[in-house]
Structures are given as C-alpha cells and as structure tokens.
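Hi support team,

I've been running sequence recovery on a batch of backbones for a student project. Most finish fine, but this one hangs at about 90% for roughly twenty minutes before it completes. I'm not sure whether the input is malformed or the queue is just slow. I've pasted the structure tokens below so you can try to reproduce it. Let me know if you need the job ID as well.

Thanks,
M.K.
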C-alpha cells in the first residue's frame, strides 16, 4: 500500500520569518516532500503575508499552494483566532493542479470559467479516477459609505443610495457581496465529475477586506482552486443544527436574488419582524442586531436539505442576504449554541468509518456566536478523528459537492470532507 503522509501545523509567532520557519520545520518533519499545501491566516498578519509566502516558497520550491484569510481555525492542538495554519499532503497516487480566476465580483462567470479551464487542462491526462476540488473565493466586503456605520439603515434616502452605490462599487472597486455562487455555478458546470469543499475568505468578521493565496501571490477578488486526481476516496456533507419554524413567501426579490423587498406581500423588515415575533424597532437596533442575528437566520430547501441564509443588512424597506435566495417558500429557523455544537458531531457520525484526514469549513458567524464554547467543536472533532489530522477553517460562506451532483452553498453551517483509502 502506498504511503499517505498528512500533517496539519500552525504557528502563532508574530514575525513573518519566524512563522515561515516554524511552519516549514514542522511540515518537513512530518511530510518532507508534500504534493500540495493549503495555507490559511488571520488578518492580523496582513502586512506579513508576502514574507510568509516567500519564506514557504523558499523551502518548498514550486510547491502548489492555495488558501486565504480566515476568521480563525481549529486543529487538534487548539482553537485560534490569530495565527497561520497549513495542511500538507504527500501521496504518490495523486496528481495536483492549481487554477485561478480573477475579478470575481465584477465578472464571476468569467472568473469561474478561467479557473476551471486551468484545472481541466492540467489534469486531463491523469490516470487516477477520483477528482476533487478545494475552492476558495473572495467573500463579502462591505464598502465604506457616508452615513452607513453598521448593519442597520433606517433612512429611506440612504437605503436608495446604498442600493445604487453597491452596484457601482461592485463594478468599479469590487467592494460588495461575494458572488461566490455565480463563480461556483461556472466551475461545477465545467467540472461536473469533481467533488468539492469550499470556503469564502474573510477577515475578523468586520467584512472589510480579505485575501486569497496562490503560490507566492497575495490576491484579492479572486477564486483559487486546488484540483486533485487520486485513488483516495472522499465524502462530503454538511450540517447546521437549525430547527425549521414558520414557512413564508418571498414575493419580491432583486435580480441578483439577495435583496428581499417583500415577504408575504408586505415590506420585508416589518413582516420578518412579525414572523420572528419581535418588535420592528428591535430589528432596527444596530447593537441588538449585530449580537443576535446569528440566532434567527432563515432557511430554504434544496431538495430535502435545509440551507441557511443570514441577513447581514437591514434597510428601511428591504433585507440583504449574504447569499442567494429564491422567490417562494422560505422558513424562519431557530438555532442555539448547543445545536451548533451538536451538528458537528451529528454530521461526522453520519459519515461512517473514520478517515485518513479531514478538512472542514465552518461559518465565522458560528465562531463569533459560540465564543469560548468553540472548544466543544474541537472536542467533537478530536473524538471523531482520534489521532488522524484535521483542519477546520472559519469562513464567510461554505459549500460542498459530491461528484456528478449539484453543489450546496450555505451560511451558518459546518461543511466537511473526509478522505479515505
């Protein structure tokens, strides 16, 4: 049997040189000649990313490397909201390719096609039958606008300015919603036989800026993919722990399927407040909304699976969803911290036998919500994986796909892929 070598390592050193040296040393000890590296870091290292990537490149020449910024991560050693983490894999029965697509907010379909084409061409001649993608796309970036200082906009005039300004900024400076689904639509259309796990890059949940990594490059508004062909098997799934409550009808939504104007034929903010049994003034309380909105997302069905959507902006006449919604039946849902934690355990236990290693993307909103209880997520991961390596990254949006099936894209969820012989 061919030897599979995998390690997950992290560094919380402050200096770029020290980070690169520590990560390189740890990886080389466990996986001397990796086939690829997945690298993630918190925004605290923004001015050090260049030197960290250069340091890793000097130790792993021409090594395929992709990744990006995350709000935090979990390894078997701990839970961190500051640091750098790397997953390294070496396996002889594996071919690897990197794809990159640019201008994801301005031209998402073109970016997805550009990325998929590179993967397809580079792995076309591979003899291995199982195909898989790690995808990382620039997430939501909320532009700075005069008169807007938080997630709530009461003024009708400001609402109109924000809606118009978002379209302009999306095209000119690419500060807007992430448009990840438009990118993934194209990638999965071009590569239908690939499995996938996805994470949208993010900062420290301020949603002001985020970066993607590819080799020695630090990128923005980009999709970076690492494709593999191998004889390893893999399985992907997701969970959220949410309880379906009241069904309602989205009767008016924007062309991009993210700004909900009317629910049940009524103005969206007031009707959503009624469905939640909360005063409308409370929904327009910025401090309350920032603290409590993770507990009342809404959900929509894709097949028989419940996909969560979070409203990140409450405007005078509408609600802005982090991800696409559809007209028709949507549900209010409730979710507790306990159920968030249990959903990790339930998702893993439903996936059968233990893997050789695992990779998970989990919504940063859950990290923010759970606080110190995030250690219980780590406990569940360690109980399942035992001595096998795993990495959980905290992102702005997560997704999974099985080969020759449609993909699922979620918010406020836990997505995981298990790799087995």
């Amino acid at each position: 049997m061919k030897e599979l070598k995998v390690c997950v390592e992290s560094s919380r050193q402050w200096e770029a040189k020290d980070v690169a040296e520590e990560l390189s040393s740890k990886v080389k000890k466990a996986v001397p000649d990796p086939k690829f590296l997945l690298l993630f870091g918190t925004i605290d290292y923004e001015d050090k990313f260049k030197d960290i990537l250069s340091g890793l490149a000097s130790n792993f020449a021409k090594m395929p490397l992709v990744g990006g910024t995350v709000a935090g991560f979990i390894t078997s050693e701990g839970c961190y909201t500051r640091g750098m983490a790397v997953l390294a894999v070496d396996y002889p029965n594996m071919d690897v390719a990197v794809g990159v697509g640019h201008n994801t907010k301005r031209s998402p379909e073109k970016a997805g096609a550009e990325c998929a084409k590179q993967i397809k061409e580079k792995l076309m001649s591979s003899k291995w039958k199982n195909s898989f993608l790690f995808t990382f796309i620039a997430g939501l970036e909320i532009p700075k606008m005069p008169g807007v200082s938080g997630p709530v906009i009461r003024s009708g005039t400001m609402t109109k300015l924000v809606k118009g300004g978002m379209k302009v900024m999306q095209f000119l400076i690419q500060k807007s919603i992430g448009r990840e689904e438009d990118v993934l639509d194209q990638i999965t259309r071009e590569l239908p036989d690939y499995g996938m796990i996805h994470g949208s890059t993010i900062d420290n949940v301020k949603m002001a800026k985020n970066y993607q990594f590819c080799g020695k490059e630090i990128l923005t508004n980009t999709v970076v993919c690492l494709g593999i062909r191998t004889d390893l098997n893999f399985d992907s799934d997701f969970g959220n722990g949410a309880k379906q409550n009241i069904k309602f009808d989205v009767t008016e939504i924007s062309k991009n399927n993210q700004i909900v104007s009317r629910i049940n034929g009524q103005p969206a903010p007031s009707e959503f407040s009624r469905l939640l049994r909360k005063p409308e003034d409370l929904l327009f309380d910025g401090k309350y909304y920032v603290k409590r909105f993770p507990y009342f997302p809404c959900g929509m069905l894709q097949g028989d699976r419940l996909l969560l959507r979070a409203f990140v902006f409450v405007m005078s006449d509408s609600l802005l969803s982090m991800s696409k919604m559809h007209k028709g039946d949507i549900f209010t849902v409730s979710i507790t911290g306990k159920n968030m934690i249990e959903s990790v355990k339930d998702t893993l236990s439903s996936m059968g036998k233990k893997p050789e290693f695992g990779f998970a993307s989990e919504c940063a909103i859950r990290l923010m919500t759970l606080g110190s209880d995030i250690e219980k997520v780590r406990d569940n991961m360690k109980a399942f994986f035992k001595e096998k390596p795993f990495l959980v990254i905290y992102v702005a949006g997560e997704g999974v796909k099985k080969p020759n099936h449609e993909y699922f894209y979620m918010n406020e969820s836990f997505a995981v892929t298990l790799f087995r012989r």
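--
Follow-up from support: It reproduced on our side and the slowdown came from queue contention, not your input. The radius of gyration is 21 Å. No action needed from you.
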